[in-house]
Queue: 3 jobs
Job 1
Amino acid sequence: MKVALFVTCLIDLMRPRVGFAALELLTAAGGEVEVPETQTCCGQPAWNSGDRASAIRLAKKLIAEFEGFDYVVVPSGSCADHIKHEYPAILGDEPEWQARAVALGRRVYELTDFLVHVVRLEAVPGRFAGRVTYHDSCTGLRSLGIKAQPRALLKRAGVEVLEMNGAEECCGFGGTFSVKFGEISAAIAERKCANACATGAAAIVGGDLGCLLNIEGKLRRMGDETTQVLHIAEVLTAKS
């Protein structure tokens, strides 16, 4: 089984340790794992901003880089969804590329979904000390059905999850939404942070780094310097 890890831009630029944690989890799951060195962006920011030409170019680049693998695993529901569900539309005017996009999309999985439903990972390599609350990112939840998978993995790691009110509500990030509608985004993020902190959990955990950076930024601006904000891959590989 040849598995490719698509790292994502935010992880590469902002929190590389999430990529290394995802790689550790995939290695623990068995199989041959590779991280294609030429990978860059999936093109989602360009597509969402109306830059069709760049979105097409990046989609073709990614397809060419990853279509030789049995599976492509992405530690981000947002990016995984873009590759799986948007590429066929982006490349709709080019039947050959569209067919390649559809074929690749069938083999693309969000990280926790892959670990639970494909390789059925029973034991995770880390042990996290402390209780957490989980934020369900919008795209992963609503487009990919990512809900039970991360909680199942946290349970296998012996982590107690304290459910917050509004766990399925948006954090206010939404990619360019947080830039275009800053005041609305900040209000949504404040409500998310308040709900999370009310649980008494030591950490807020999620599967999309964009959401987590947005939540952490708001927490710190609210004066909270102690609550951790972690990607689930970090929790599942923690050595504490």
Job 2
Amino acid sequence: MARTAFRDPNRDFGMDISTVIGLILAVGLVLGAIMTTTSITTFIDIPSILVVIGGTIAATLIAFPLNRVFKLVSVFMKTIFNKPANSLENMSAIVSLAEIARRDGILSLESHLADGKFDDFLTRGLRMAIDGQEPGVIESAMELELESLIERHANGKAILDTVGKYAPAFGMIGTLIGLVVMLQNMEDASQLGPAMAVALITTFYGSCVANMVALPLADKLALRSAEEVSSKVMIIRGVMCIQAGDNPRIVKQKLLAFLDPKQRVAAEELET
């Protein structure tokens, strides 16, 4: 059987270039539109920034415990730097290990897991199988770990969703404050236009924070989470197949369902 060169999972971190390009493009287009029509200083208003940014932070602190709010920076970084789930690589590893287990016995996998070249989740599952745990116990333990991962990912996404929800609301609050101040100073009609412009800037800030940053990043987190969950579900199925002593060809066919069409073409080239 052809062997695949497995990468160290700890070295699989990389930059998600689409997130970086999207953020730069969104900010660049808005700034470009502003600068082609007026001065950038027209859109700078400190009180409006305080209302939107400060208000959104305050609302997020009310909605979540302090320790979770402090993780907002790390959540943001996960949308840019991440360890992608490599389902094709994991499938190749599982099929290879299934062949070894079928040929030499499941206890022989211990030596192959010692060098840490396989996915940690896969390694933990196989170690339980090597230790002679019942299939139901193994599957239950791995699914419990998966549920915990899903919950952590949901918590991170919830913070960004909250920012995206409250930023426009505080933008509207800032606009209402500006309108009240403007209506209390109606004597000078020449000041109404500039005053209205300042009142609307907070809505602009809130919309930008929500629709250029928070909500798109929340969607990216959801996508990454779905990819990782699918990969781990595949690993669970693979571990259970190895534990049951399935033929490597059968194992491969079962795991192909978790791959996209391009990955399936690459997987079909693996010798079994």
Job 3
Amino acid sequence: MLRTLENYFEFARLGTGWRQEIVAGLTTFLTMAYIIFVNPSILAEAGMPAAAVTAATCISAGLASILMGAVARYPIAMAPGMGLNAYFTYGVVKGMGVEWQTALGAVFLSGVLFLLLTAVGVRRWIVESIPRPLYAATAVGIGLFIALIGMKNAGIVQASPATMLTLGNLRAPGTVLALAGLVLTGALLIGGVRAAMLIGAAVTTGASVLLGLTKLGGGAAPWEALGQTAFQLNIPAAFQLGVAEIVFAFLFVDLFDNLGTLLAVANRAGLIEKDGRIPRIERILAADSVATMAGSMMGTSTVVSYIESAAGVAAGGRSGVTAIVTGICFLLALFVAPWLGVIPAAATAPALILVGAMMMAHTAEIEWGELRDAIPAFLTIVAIPMTFSIANGLSLGFLSYALLQVATGRGRAVSPFVYILSAVLLCRFFYLGSG
């Protein structure tokens, strides 16, 4: 049985094993477990029951990650997306006065549209139309994005009205603990310890508890409340409301966030072939579509691929088993969710910072001497962390690449589909800037 599974997940070709994959899956889970608490806190602002959303978050993340690992066989974990949950709450429910049940219906419709676009090959065409220089640039930009999130969570940097960003309070106990965890984890990585990030997070969490910085949780598990959101979506109302704008927003951001994550994680894991083709791309996109539809039925906003998966890849994850282990952890978290609050930001921040550091290696893949490639790549890299959006960065890089090809007389070398998508992106930017 084990040998059959090893063959299915191509352990020999990928140079991986069960221990390595399990450690990687646990590492990914630790770096993204925060969504179990953050997602309910955001969607509660839309009037949704927090306990029910907690259960929906665990179930949707668990099933989606297992689906991605088992069907697409990629080490990419999934969960309700940050940014899209904020748009769901503040843009749709509060901003437009739409009931949350109707908003869930719009999320479901976006998933259906995703699946249709995948079936006819449109999403694959989009992936294949992304210029090669932007593959590496997306990975680098996301690396900076991850590192920025990690440094913010650790308190190393903080917002400033004068300079937008400034140095945080390095004497704060949580920040000192995060810095210590950063040194410990970095030293373990340099020493070649596969479980470096997992060990670093566990030691930092233990120290936080011993120092009294983190209190042990407790209380009832949230599954009993799931019925308050499960299957409460209102699809007919979404149709009657004419929520084309909302569906498009969910569709577009999910599409480019997922593409960016896919390119970055697959590139980091060495899973992209020499001709730029991504194996089993249709399965990846189909899993994403089904996950969004299932998530809306459980009672949560759009489910997306998580860039924190790069932490698992950095820990040695190469196959779908990594994602399956992460998914199992999310399902188990349904029963112990109140206790998971013991994992402080100081424990996961070092992993995010170090993953960002390792993803800088992809800058070597960009031909900086060729400005037609270098300028779009640079814009992609800086826009992702500066706009706090993978979708914005990849969109800006894609659009600038197409425009520069035309401006320098090489427009005929670009496929027509690139221009079609560029026109859509240009309209999107004008729409975003109209507010």
